[in-house]
Recover the amino acids of this structure.
């Protein structure tokens, strides 16, 4: 993906990026997360909130592998496995940051809301 396309998509408002995330993830049936060196998924937000950031394409997530995340790696998750995992995240009260940009501007959604959004979007592709 070229730099101009990355910049244009990152420049979208949070809600528009979230819509882009849902469409891309449903189309390619993969979603991207970042793991630390201990194979734990990285979280963002305050200390009293657990928020798991997710991206629609590997190139976007890789841009975050700097500073405190320089020793981390991007991992690809099958969308159906991810949807199953969302039930567990809901029980653990982990929200999702749907496609943060480089300033960490993002939309936060509950795991159950993301599950419902993804299931709906996947139904549009079948």
């Amino acid at each position: 993906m070229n730099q101009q396309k990355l910049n244009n998509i990152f420049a979208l408002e949070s809600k528009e990026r979230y819509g882009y995330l849902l469409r891309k993830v449903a189309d390619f049936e993969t979603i991207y997360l970042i793991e630390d060196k201990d194979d734990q998924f990285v979280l963002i937000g305050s200390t009293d909130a657990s928020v798991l950031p997710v991206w629609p394409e590997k190139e976007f997530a890789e841009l975050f592998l700097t500073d405190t995340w320089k020793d981390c790696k991007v991992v690809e998750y099958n969308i159906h496995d991810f949807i199953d995992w969302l039930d567990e995240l809901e029980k653990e009260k982990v929200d999702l940051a749907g496609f943060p940009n480089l300033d960490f501007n993002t939309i936060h959604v509950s795991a159950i809301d993301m599950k419902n959004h993804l299931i709906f979007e996947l139904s549009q592709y079948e």
Notes: Residues 3-125 form a domain with the Trna Endonuclease; Chain: A, domain 1 fold (CATH 3.40.1350.90). The chain has one domain: 3-125. The first helix runs from residue 3 to 10. The chain has a mean pLDDT of 93.
